[in-house]
Amino acid sequence: FVPAFVCWGMWAGYGAVRLMRRAAVTSTLPALGALAALLPAILNWNAVDRRRDPVASEARLAATRILDSAPPGAIVLARGDNETYPIWYMQEVERMRRDVTVVVMPLLPAKWYRAELQRRYALLPHDAVETWKGAGPTLAAICTRAAELRRPVMPAGASPDTTSQTVCETRVR
């Protein structure tokens, strides 16, 4: 995306300069050029302004809901960045519910991530780290180890009455 955005920016800048050279008087050229460059930001300000609620606190509230609904020592299965980063922020910066472990399911195919789950939390056996057997068997191994450690497993955003057995049976299939 970065090269495409840079290319688009260069073409937009080139077009704005050409347009201003054709249409403007030389004394007003810098002011009109600056206005043309800032016009997209000015027109889109309401769409990108994230300083006001509810948008400003949406991620924080979602992470708080997930952590508050997790039982003590839970393993939360996160589906991606929108769940993971707010939870990590709440745990690391605000020191909230550090007993909860977040497992990022899209990262499970990465050997380094499985190794971290084994090293930090003892959630995977050695063979599940070394060889990728698929999401189902890996989640089954996490569920098995969680049961041995007496740690509940829940998907991010699940209701508090969701049991580890229900989650693990559903995820393993």
Description:
By secondary structure, the protein is mostly helical. Helix content is 60%, strand content 6%. It has 9 helices and 3 strands. It has helices at residues 2-23, 29-43, 45-48, 58-69, 81-92, 111-121, 126-130, 135-148, 164-172, and strands spanning 75-78, 101-104, 153-155. A 3-stranded parallel beta sheet has the order 2-1-3. Strand 1 (75-78), helix 5 (81-92) and strand 2 (101-104) form a beta-alpha-beta unit. It starts with a helix and ends with a helix. The model has no long low-confidence stretch (mean pLDDT 84).
Defining key terms:
173 residues; mainly alpha; three-stranded parallel sheet; 9 helices; elongated
Determine Rg (CA atoms, Å). 24 Å
Number of helices: 9
Low-confidence stretches: none
Helix content: 55-70%
Question: What would a concise description of this structure say?
Answer:
The protein contains 9 helices and 3 strands. By secondary structure, the chain is mainly alpha-helical. The chain is elongated and about 75 Å long.
What topology does this entry show?
Blueprint: H1 2-23, H2 29-43, H3 45-48, H4 58-69, E1 75-78, H5 81-92, E2 101-104, H6 111-121, H7 126-130, H8 135-148, E3 153-155, H9 164-172
Helix pairs in contact: 1-2, 4-5, 8-9
